[in-house]
Amino acid sequence: MALAGSEASLELAKEAHAETGRGVVEDKDTKNHFATEYVYERIKNEKTVGIIGEDKVSGSIQIAEPLGVLAGIVPTTNPTSTTMFKILVALKTRNAIVFAFHPQAQKCSAHAAKILYEAAVKTGAPENIVQWIEMPSIANTTALIQNKKIASILATGDLVW
């Protein structure tokens, strides 16, 4: 997944700039590489499920388990890098994620999500592990974050559109 995102970094940076009119393509490219390559390198060896820690003195252990379905809220400022980062973190922790993208960054965000999702499925991830709202709106985003089946929310930015 990280490699697929990294390989598409410049294309996604150009798309994000064209769609949102924000930032500098080269800076967005750098953020995309950071959100894929650096994040992957930092988390790849981290244990995120099962026994993740042990205190031999007290005899206690730390156990982690997936939360379930996460909601991912993505702003217009750094849409592609934020999307890719959240997918890597969600899937590393064995959680599904459903995105609400900012309406002014819907296409580039969905493209970034699709690239990582397809790479994940090719390597054995379950179908539909990454999803997004096709018709962005405050009402749809609100419905997502208020859904009782959402275990946690990964929010970046605010809901001021």
From TrEMBL:
Locate the Aldehyde dehydrogenase domain: which residues?
Answer: 38-158
Which GO MF term does the entry hold, naming one?
alcohol dehydrogenase (NAD+) activity
Question: What SUPFAM superfamilies does the record point to?
Answer: ALDH-like (SSF53720)
Q: Which UniProt keywords apply?
A: Oxidoreductase
What enzyme category does the UniProt record give? oxidoreductase
Q: Oxidoreductase: present as a keyword of the record?
A: yes
EC number in record: 1.1.1.1
Check the record and name the Pfam families matching this protein. Aldedh (PF00171)
Lineage: superkingdom: Bacteria
Provide the protein name: Bifunctional acetaldehyde dehydrogenase/alcohol dehydrogenase
By which gene is this protein encoded?
Answer: adhE_1
